[in-house]
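Changelog entry

Holo records now carry the ligand SMILES as an explicit input line rather than a separate metadata file. Below, a converted record for adenosine-5'-diphosphate, shown in the new format.
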Amino acid sequence: MIVTVTLNPSVDYVVRLSELNIGSLNRTGDATYFAGGKGINVTQVLHELHIPSVATGFVGGFSGEFIKDSLTARGIQTNFVQIDEPTRINIKLKTRDETEVNAAGPSISTENLNALLQLVNEYGEGDTLVLAGSIPSSLSSSLYGDLTEKASSSGMKVVIDAEKALLEPALTSSLHFIKPNQHELGEYFGVEVKTVEEAILYGKKLLAYDIENIMISMAEKGAVLLTKDAIYQAQVPKGIVKNSVGSGDSSVAGFLAGREKGLSIEESFRFSVATGSATAFSEGLATADDIERLVPQVTIQSLI
Ligand SMILES: Nc1ncnc2c1ncn2[C@@H]1O[C@H](COP(=O)(O)OP(=O)(O)O)[C@@H](O)[C@H]1O
Ligand SMILES: O=P(O)(O)OC[C@H]1O[C@](O)(COP(=O)(O)O)[C@@H](O)[C@@H]1O
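Structure line, unchanged by the conversion:
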């Protein structure tokens, strides 16, 4: 079972407007709500691909109800800890550019946290734990480190998709997969990563830790996958980007789905890139048909 943990889920409010005038009244075109948050998106895409997954984390209030309802209506397995404050709403403004305003999120009590830890403790050998997204400020920023240590000592594979401050405490344990984008990789080393060559250079430095698969996504510039034995570079398919929110999460789901389906590392990487792009080219998250259509359009080059 793939267990995704979203400590800070969100309702993503995607608003389209021709231009944003700061300090004036703006009226929107289309506006849509999506159940979001990184782990929740991973579970949604895995469900679309018929890979068993359960979404856990904290949800509360009317926005939490929206998330639970929209997942359960589609038959997606959830096991959330109910909290008192409402789940956050993240604003995604689509003008010519994509501007995101991600809220800090609700406060989480010690009781809530213990309930979540207990729930995660029910999994072990053969299961995969996905820790993805921000951690609400009322919880320790070293929480992914603690969860990773416990999970990997109980035989679980651990996947992390989070910024440097949250990933770093987990680097003392072994990790199955991480997927920083080029900006997050740069942030890790206090540099700007602009080219594939730079992504490889800094990706190799992360291989010094016990990480099996490191994928660096670079949006339209492609992606790189590094393991102890191989480096692959992918070119993304061409298409019109409709809404790239969730495309990174879809890449994570795509890689895990590839491995669950028994694909090689290289083919799982191809599937991952196709899944990320299928989401970028859709209003919501990728569909299985769109992913399959894009797989042959992803070119992979082996660099060693
Ligand atoms: N403009 C684009 N064209 C094609 N694919 C894209 C585009 N933007 C994102 N993607 C797909 O989504 C994946 C993740 O996007 P990226 O922006 O790098 O990650 P994140 O969403 O985590 O910041 C990419 O590897 C690619 O497959
Ligand atoms: O927890 P964070 O870092 O604030 O990110 C949450 C946001 O990221 C998303 O999961 C999308 O992430 P990606 O675009 O990186 O795939 C949104 O659904 C959500 O609003």
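Spot-checked after migration. Residues 181, 217-220, 223, 236, 241, 244, 247-248, 251, 273, 276-277, 280 surround adenosine-5'-diphosphate (ligand 1) (CB under 6 Å). The domain at 179-304 is CATH 3.40.1190.20 (UDP-N-acetylmuramoyl-L-alanine:D-glutamate ligase).
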